[in-house]
Amino acid sequence: MNWWDAAISVIGGVVLIYAVLLVLLALYARRHPETVGMREALRLLPDLLTLLRRLTADRILPRGIRVRLVLLLVYLASPIDLVPDFLPVIGYADDVIIVALVLRSVIRKAGTGPLENHWPGTPAGLALIQRLAGTSATAP
């Protein structure tokens, strides 16, 4: 096997992993279509970023949770996404789903208290974030 065959194998593997991740993303979005609409998510973005920053700075939370939050912030700030943001609707869907998964993970580990304590927005916004994280079935 020469270097050319190895390069093609690596590229093929990366493409296959990317395709699997896109399928998983589509399955998650199809399974949870009612989670949060794109317009609602964009309205909450400033409060959500403040929440993530405050949770990351909270030394009471376990280090593993803070590491997840830092990685989430790096992913959100990075120009490289699973699905490029220039694609309409689905370009931002991966960001919303990843935020939801990380928040769900944080809430499972730390409970809802830190989320409620650090939320800078309205109670309706908090209810929407809880719905996004899958911890509340009620609409705001």
Number of strands: 0
Poorly predicted regions are none
Largest sheet: none
How many whole angstroms does the radius of gyration measure? Answer: 17 Å
User: Beta-strand level of the residues, as a percent range?
Assistant: under 5%
Q: Write the H/E string, N to C.
A: HHHHHHH
Number of helices: 7
Q: Please tell me the overall pLDDT.
A: 78
Distance between the termini: 59 Å
Gross morphology is: elongated
Describe this structure in words.
The protein is an all-alpha fold. It has 2 domains: 1-31; 35-132. Helix content is 71%, strand content 0%. The chain has 7 helices and no strands. It has helices at 3-31, 38-43, 45-57, 63-77, 90-110, 113-118, 123-132. It is elongated, with a radius of gyration of 17 Å.
What is the secondary structure topology, with strand pairs?
Layout: H1 3-31, H2 38-43, H3 45-57, H4 63-77, H5 90-110, H6 113-118, H7 123-132
What features would you highlight for this structure?
7 helices, elongated, 140 residues, mainly alpha
Please give a quick description of this structure.
The chain is mostly helical. It is built from seven helices and no strands.
